[in-house]
Design goal:
774 residues; alpha+beta; 3 domains; eight-stranded mixed sheet; Macrolide_Exporter_MacB; ABC3_permease_C; membrane; FtsX-like permease family protein; transmembrane
Length: 774
């Protein structure tokens, strides 16, 4: 307690500079804590399963086309085969995620729910604890398992086992179990799950669950021991070829625990933010050390006095480190309190729900303790070990100086602080530029003002009637019925051939069903020939497919698709569909049939949009009153694809602001202390006639030089890191010189303004006051 009070009294001597130095460290630590929270939240995905080390995933990849194509799932027959044939596999499960919502009804209550299809061995492999019932009671095909929240929407808090729910006004299902709500960190998510067997009826195909093609089924397995994974992974690769020797569809296994971080490449952003955390922390610590070093001349005389009255070098080191440790502890406590207070705002900004308890897990606590120890050790190292090595005569003599050494050391740290700021600022600009590029990139069609309606229930059968009725509305310019939205066309296959095709070349071609109005509605354009017409049977291919085929002209020629000959009516300019980060794939477009009428896409006017939407809802409810109208703007769907890039940009921007604040506080504290140290020198220079601008320039010049040097260091580092990040995008912006110039200019300008303000105050003081100093 005595040491704490003594340290606090010492802080009052240079209250302003000390406060700024501690504030800079606090801001840096708050930033690092938020990064820890975000990283810990990302790493937590799927870690709650008891069998985590024994769960594996099997997926397929195609090698018949110009490049390898990876799928999230594999054929349905794979699951039963590997469970029967590989001794190390204890259980398997096939799973179709809740891609879209379905209408679920109980009496007068009806809601749209995310309904997944799965083998009920899902609950033996994964840890989804049951509150009521289980997965093996009654007729398996007529079961439904609910999450707790879904059950409460229909039955309150009572036990609903045995109750009946109706799915899409067609299928009656009995509740066999209720599980706890699925954690937000789960990549497997649903409101309800029904047996996979219902897919046979859904697609009117008795063989739907036994084929060796169709890579729609996510397949999970449970090993009898963790060490068996390598044996399983090597066994599954060519399993499809045992049934279909000509297939170019191969299998690969990976551990489920690696899925979110490594298979989906979220580890990329974790590494980026790990580097940012280190940079921000280094900047904050350097600032703290810098200020400690700047004050070392006063501390040197204090050390000399202590040694004169008998203190040993070890006692001096202990006293110095105790002071630094107390100041560091104060900074850490303040940072923790600020992190707690600001967490709701941080969560709201990035769209997450991070719990503060994440920070108190043993790994983050261990890291923070390590950071604290490192900060204290580095901040106290110069005065504790270097200054304490001098004899009392050296430190107390009037000609004692370590100015040159301290200046080089201090300027080096200022350069590093500038470099960290420039790296983060330029990274923010590049990420923002890439996000803007993807938002504004040419898609091959006009996505603005495209509104889609999901054709549920009777709407699918009466799609053309609905389109004609809405077309009479002044707010609807045109409409087209399509099988899939252009951002999620998942229907594809290898079944296309043509004259001169290499038999071993088997590209994956996307099959899209539309109508004759698609071109007008979407604003797409033709490169050759005509688009589909109701009276003409044939196909239209996109330019990518045309380039792959390699002919000079296409109209009038034919393609063979899945055993049927199709005349080519025309070649359409590429529309960018599926993921924006991927290149355009080959596509074949044909007229839709009744089973493929899934969406009505409408081009709506920019005026009276609310009235137009109201008219759409009324028209849909007139045809199908049982289903709520499911509509949205296509532009919003594409923006959802960019969510990770938008969040990444926000995070880097937030941390850039933190870093600039650390830089400003650090420089302000340093300049404040230096002006106090040089107050007599400033007074003498003014008495000798030196102008205020000249005196201010003496303070600004070193920081200006440091900023320029930092820009030279930071630019190649940023270019290397961000260029590697951009490699993950098929369509990407260019990293230009202006990004680094603007970043450097921002950092240097903010720093110069900070230094100017304080140095101007010092230079304009009355020289009489300066010469009376002390």
């Amino acid at each position: 307690m005595k040491n704490i009070l003594f340290t606090l009294r010492k802080l009052k001597k240079n209250k302003a500079s000390n406060s700024l130095g501690i504030a800079a460290l606090v801001v840096g630590l708050v930033c690092v804590m938020y990064i820890f929270l975000w990283i810990a939240d990302e790493v937590r995905h799927d870690r709650f399963h008891a069998n985590l080390d024994r769960i594996f995933v099997v997926h397929a990849y195609l090698e018949g086309g110009p490049e390898k194509i990876t799928f999230g799932g594999c054929p349905p027959a794979v699951s039963t085969a590997i469970e029967a044939e590989i001794p190390e596999v204890e259980k398997t499960c096939r799973y179709i995620p809740a891609y879209s919502e379905m209408l679920v009804t109980s009496g007068s209550k009806r809601f749209m729910e995310g309904v997944a299809f799965a083998d009920y061995s899902l609950f033996d492999i994964f840890s989804f604890p049951f509150i009521h019932g289980g997965s093996n009671s009654g007729d398996a095909e007529n079961q439904v398992i609910l999450t707790e929240s879904a059950a409460q929407r229909y039955f309150g808090k009572s036990n609903p086992v045995g109750e009946i729910l109706q799915l899409n006004n067609k299928l009656d299902l009995m509740v066999s179990g209720v599980i706890q709500d699925i954690p937000s960190h789960s990549t497997i998510d649903f409101d309800m799950v029904i047996p996979l067997e219902h897919l046979r009826m859904y697609y009117s195909n008795d063989n739907y669950l036994s084929t060796w093609y169709n890579n729609s089924f996510r397949t999970f397995g449970l090993l009898n021991r963790p060490e068996a994974f390598e044996a399983v992974a090597s066994s599954v690769t060519n399993r499809i070829q045992q049934e279909m020797p000509e297939s170019t569809n191969f299998l690969r296994a990976y551990l489920f625990k690696d899925g979110y971080l490594y298979e989906r490449n979220h580890i990329r952003n974790i590494r980026i933010f790990g580097i940012i955390a280190i940079l921000v922390l280094v900047s904050a610590i350097l600032n703290f050390i810098n200020l400690a070093t700047a004050k070392s001349s006063k501390q040197a005389k204090e050390t000399g006095l202590r040694k004169t009255i008998g203190a040993s070098r070890w006692n001096v080191v202990r006293i110095i480190y105790s002071e630094v440790a107390i100041i560091g502890a104060l900074a850490f406590v303040l940072a923790l309190l600020l992190a707690i207070v600001g967490l709701p705002l941080f969560n709201n900004t990035i769209g997450k729900h991070i719990d503060l308890s994440t920070l108190f897990a043993w790994i983050p606590i261990s890291i923070l303790v390590g950071v604290y120890v490192l900060t204290v050790f580095l901040a106290g190292s110069y005065p504790a070990f270097f200054l304490s090595s001098f004899s009392p005569i050296q430190t107390l003599s009037s000609n004692y100086q370590t100015t040159k050494g301290r200046g080089i050391f201090r300027n080096s740290m200022v350069v590093m602080m500038f470099a960290v700021s420039i790296v983060l600022l330029s990274s923010t600009l590049i990420i923002g530029k890439q996000t803007e590029y993807m938002q504004q990139m040419e898609l091959g069609f006009e996505k603005d003002q495209l509104l889609y309606v999901k054709l549920q229930g009777k709407l699918g059968k009466h799609a053309e009637t609905l389109r004609e009725e809405l077309k009479r509305s002044s707010g609807v310019l045109s409409g087209s019925v399509v099988s899939n939205l252009p951002n999620s066309i998942g229907n594809n296959g290898e079944g296309w051939s043509w004259e001169g095709k290499d038999p071993m070349f088997k590209p994956l071609v996307t099959n899209w069903r539309t109508d004759e109005h698609m071109l007008e509605t979407f604003g797409a354009t033709m490169a050759e020939g005509d688009y589909l017409r109701e009276q003409r049977q044939g196909i239209v291919i996109n330019k990518t497919f045309a380039r792959m085929i390699g002919w000079d002209s296409f109209v009038g020629r034919t393609l063979s698709g899945y055993g049927t000959e199709y005349p080519i009516l025309g070649v359409m300019n590429d529309m960018h569909f599926n993921e924006l980060s991927e290149s355009v794939e080959p596509m074949a477009i044909s007229l839709g049939e009744s089973w493929s009428q899934n969406y009505l896409v409408l081009k709506v006017a920019t005026t009276d949009v609310k009235e137009t939407i109201d008219n759409i809802i009324v028209a849909c409810e007139k045809i199908e009153p049982a289903f709520p109208v499911d509509y949205a703007f296509l532009d919003d769907e594409y923006n959802r694809q960019l969510k990770s890039e938008i969040v990444l940009g926000k995070l880097v921007g937030i941390f850039s602001v933190f870093t600039v604040i650390v830089l400003c506080l650090g420089l302000l504290g340093l300049v404040l202390f230096l002006t106090e140290q040089k107050i007599k020198e400033i007074g003498i220079r003014k008495c000798l006639g030196e102008s205020v601008p000249s005196i201010v320039g003496r303070f600004v010049k070193p920081f200006l030089i440091s900023g320029c040097l930092a820009g030279l260091v930071a630019s190649p580092i940023t270019w290397m890191v961000m260029n590697r990040w951009l490699e993950g995008y098929a369509f990407r912006t260019q990293i230009t010189v202006w990004v680094f110039l603007v970043s450097g200019l921002i950092a240097v300008s903010i720093a110069v303004i900070t230094v100017l303000w304080q140095s101007w105050r010092a230079a304009t003081r009355n020289p009489v006051e300066a010469l009376r100093y002390e």
